[in-house]
TrEMBL record:
Protein name: AMP-dependent synthetase/ligase domain-containing protein
Species the sequence originates in: marine sediment metagenome
InterPro entries the UniProt entry points to: AMP-binding_CS, AMP-dep_synth/lig_dom, ANL_N_sf
GO cellular component: mitochondrial matrix
SUPFAM superfamilies registered for this protein in UniProt: Acetyl-CoA synthetase-like (SSF56801)
Length: 277
């Protein structure tokens, strides 16, 4: 019942270390991971299950939003129930979080910690440069979501090159992409790119405002001595709206912070000027 080279593994988890561990474990085994944004509705998840036909689904009991807990397991159970008969996973591995315990289905669901207690190290499985590393689905705004396949070799070369040539970070630096692993930016610049370069990467289960305030980005940058940050203009618009004079920034040491990259959507001039100031 183990995962082998070429198997598909669907990862439906919040922004927690276990999600990245699952991705990297797949890469080590030559399996193909497909991360679905945590908290996606059951019908959206079922569409991706039908297409990927995963052998295993790795999930968590819940995720955390600003003012509420989102139960993942009922969404997962419903998605599997409505998915095609030939697409249903053999097993689901569930990471039980302290905030909420999930109800397990006997014979299908396995507890993450129970498996970890008995796990044995496994050698890296050699793969070809053109073998698939992951499948990531488009949003589905124009028809059915399309599974985009990223290979191993070109992916590794391009991302490692970009970390120095574009972001100017070196081994040992701390890099923070304030995105989500459910998106391609999260795959590229939370997980793989920084690790290829030997950087420390930041995994943040929070929002630019409300967790607890508009100073949280500055707190994380100061606490972890972030050198370079990548995020969306929307995040900085939210911070600017809550703290227009950047008063909360004054509480933190940002001396190691050298570069900010805002991308993924249009950056309006007002937000650009505010960020530069």
């Amino acid at each position: 019942q183990g995962v082998a080279k070429g198997d598909r593994v669907l990862v439906y988890m919040p922004m927690i270390p276990e999600a990245v561990i699952a991705m990297l474990a797949c890469a080590r085994l030559g399996a193909v991971h497909s991360v679905v944004f945590g908290g996606f509705a059951a019908n959206e998840l079922a569409t991706r299950i039908n297409d990927a036909k995963p052998k295993v689904i790795v999930s968590a009991s819940c995720g955390i939003e600003v003012k509420r807990i989102i139960s993942y397991k009922p969404l997962l159970d419903k998605a599997i129930e409505i998915s095609d008969a030939d697409s249903k996973p053999q097993r689901c591995i569930i990471f039980q979080r302290a905030m909420e315990a999930a109800t397990m289905i006997e014979g299908r669901d396995l507890d993450w910690n129970d498996l970890l207690a008995d796990a044995q190290p496994h050698d890296c499985v050699p793969v070809a440069a053109t073998d698939p590393l992951y499948i990531l689905y488009t949003s589905g705004t124009t028809g059915e979501p399309k599974g985009v396949v990223r290979d191993n070799g070109g992916h590794a070369v391009a991302l490692k090159w970009s970390m120095k040539a574009i972001y100017n970070v070196d081994a040992g630096d701390v890099y923070w992409a304030a995105s989500d692993i459910g998106w391609v930016v999260g795959h590229s610049y939370i997980v793989y790119g920084p690790l290829f370069r030997g950087c420390t990467t930041i995994l943040f289960e929070g929002k630019p405002v409300g967790t607890p305030d508009a100073g949280v980005f500055w707190r994380v940058i100061s606490q972890h001595q972030v050198k370079c940050m990548f995020t969306a203009p929307t995040a900085f618009r939210a911070i600017k709206r809550e703290d227009p004079n950047a008063e909360l920034m004054k509480d933190y040491d940002l001396s190691n912070f050298k570069a900010l990259f805002l991308a993924g959507e249009r950056l309006d001039p007002d937000t650009l000027k505010w960020a530069e100031r």
